[in-house]
Design goal:
Radius of gyration: 47 Å
Number of strands: 11
Order of helices and strands: HHHHHEEHEEHHEHEEHEEHEE
Strand order of the largest sheet: 6-8-9-11-10
Helix content: 55-70%
Largest sheet: 5 strands, mixed
Low-confidence stretches: 1-19, 111-129, 495-506
Structural class: alpha+beta
Number of domains: 3
Length: 506
């Protein structure tokens, strides 16, 4: 019979190993490809966004510069119209041009017109010569060299500047200043005291009165402190949409990779499960078969003691088969979500006493013990007796199996106004801190290196956690390697309230 304990299923193991080999080759390559693609996508997106911001900034600068050129032209035209209005010939020319512009649907050159005087009989040639003389004299007039502060109307300049910027969809705060040829400030409109230094170095500048041959040079400088913010604000919807899609792609890829690696780990666990299940089921079946053959073989002498031994073997192995099948069925029930609780009033001290009584034999066979120390004043809860019994059978069974010396298992109970706490402490091998969060996962077993002296499927603790949570409770593990483990299970009282007297519950 000892030879049968190492029997495995080569076909199943070979098929799983071939799948495992394919996974080992494909999954790392697939993960690397996804990570490289994500990195490339993020880099390209970042470069595209940076390029778009730079282009928008250039377009903004061009719009401001074009607006300044338009302001300078309009300011010079306004001055020219005013000089033309100062002479009779100029006024006639303006009236003639306004007539032509009105016929073309354009605005007049001047909003305010002087009253038209009676015709003095001057001919077109005389009008042209008089106008030319007035304009030339105006270009070289000493008045043009007079104080620029009186020559430039601040209200008009502010109005023209605001109008030209709005025409180009620029509604930002604007500081400006006019500097003379000696860099002196002719006039300014500052938002903050520090704006003057920014205006002196601003790239948004234009020379005023470019066609003035006699007047001193002067330059209009503009500073928009909110330029970068304005560019980003215009791009905000596109930036948000781009960031949202990139985040969605990254999150989806991360979830996909995590799922692939989880499935990879689950495949390894299932491979171990198939191997263990094959071995665990094969051994008791072979033992029962051999015992039955011995009982039915007339050539084998059978004393009453031998008969009892064979019967005990069949009973023990049959019980072992039942426990294996029960573990798999419990896991199937949890995994399918079809666990149904038959709630009833339970005395947990009585339930735990039955568990201790039925589990003590396995510990005593190894020179150990299983002890119940009830200390809870309230021990009555509403729960499913079968499932809760299985919970503590699993915990005690694990405590006995995973102990390298005489097992010492102690079950204690405490209670408060809200619920009952049951602690199962053992002196087993313990569980590393890094593995404690994983032990409640389905099919997970704590790695033990090359040692396989304890068989199992990794189903018990996942079932325990599921049953406890179905009872609206919680489970907590305290453990150190070599110092044993303690499982704390918290089960709430049904309809328990903190202001309810203990004597009325339980």
């Amino acid at each position: 019979m000892s030879g049968l304990k190492n029997v495995k299923c080569p076909a199943a193991a070979g098929a799983l190993n071939s799948i495992d080999l394919v996974d080992k080759r494909l999954i790392p390559l697939l993960s690397a490809a996804i990570i490289i693609a994500l990195a490339g996508l993020v880099l390209i997106q970042w470069r595209w966004i940076a390029g778009t911001i730079e282009l928008k900034d250039q377009q903004f600068n061009e719009a401001v510069d074009n607006g300044l050129v338009a302001v300078a032209d309009r300011l010079e035209r306004v001055e020219l119209v005013r000089e033309l209005q100062a002479s009779e010939a100029g006024r006639r020319m303006i009236r003639h041009l306004d007539t032509l512009r009105a016929a073309a649907g354009e605005e007049p050159l001047a909003a305010l017109q002087q009253p038209v005087a009676a015709s003095d009989g001057s001919g077109p040639d005389q009008l042209r010569d008089s106008l030319l003389n007035d304009v030339v004299r105006g270009f070289f007039s000493p008045g043009r060299s007079a104080d620029l502060a009186r020559r430039i109307d601040p209200v008009l300049l502010d109005s023209l500047l605001r109008d030209e910027l709005l025409r180009r969809s620029i509604d930002d705060r604007c500081a400006y200043a006019v500097f003379g040829g000696d860099s002196s400030v002719v006039l300014s409109r500052l938002l903050e005291p520090a704006d003057l230094a920014a205006l002196r170095t601003s790239t948004h500048r234009v020379r005023l009165y470019r066609n003035d041959l006699a007047g001193p040079p002067c330059t209009l400088h503009v500073h928009l402190p909110d330029q970068q913010r304005s560019v980003l604000r215009d791009m905000l919807p596109m930036l948000i949409a781009s960031a949202l899609f990139v985040f969605l792609i990254i999150a989806t890829s991360f979830f996909t990779l995590r799922t692939i690696w989880q499935q990879r780990r689950l495949s390894d666990i299932k491979t171990d499960l198939v191997n263990n299940l094959t071995h665990e089921l094969k051994t008791p079946i072979s033992t029962i078969s051999l015992a039955c053959e011995a009982l039915t073989d007339p050539g084998i002498p059978k004393s009453p003691e031998q008969m009892q031994q064979f019967i005990r073997m069949i009973r023990d192995e049959n019980k072992r088969l039942g426990m294996l099948v029960e573990s798999v069925l419990q896991s199937a029930v949890v995994d399918s979500g079809r666990m149904r609780l038959r709630m009833a009033e339970l005395d947990m001290h009585s339930l735990l006493a039955d568990v201790v009584r039925n589990s003590a034999i396995a510990a005593e066979n190894r020179g150990g013990r299983v002890e119940l120390r009830p200390a809870a004043e309230l021990a009555h809860i509403s729960g499913d007796r079968v499932h809760l019994s299985n919970v503590f059978y699993n915990l005690v069974d694990n405590a006995v199996k995973y102990c390298e010396r005489e097992p010492d298992v102690v079950i204690t109970t405490t209670s408060d106004a809200a619920g009952l706490t049951i602690s199962v402490r053992d002196n087993g091998i313990g569980i590393p801190r890094s593995e404690q969060r994983k032990v409640f996962e389905r099919l997970y077993r704590v790695p033990t290196g090359d040692r396989h002296n304890v068989k199992g499927f990794g189903l018990g603790l996942s079932y325990v956690k599921a049953v406890v949570e179905q009872h609206k409770g919680s489970i907590r593990l305290e453990s150190e390697p070599g110092q044993g483990s303690t499982f704390h299970i918290r089960l709430p009282f049904e309809h328990g309230r903190s202001d309810q007297a203990p004597a009325l519950r339980g």
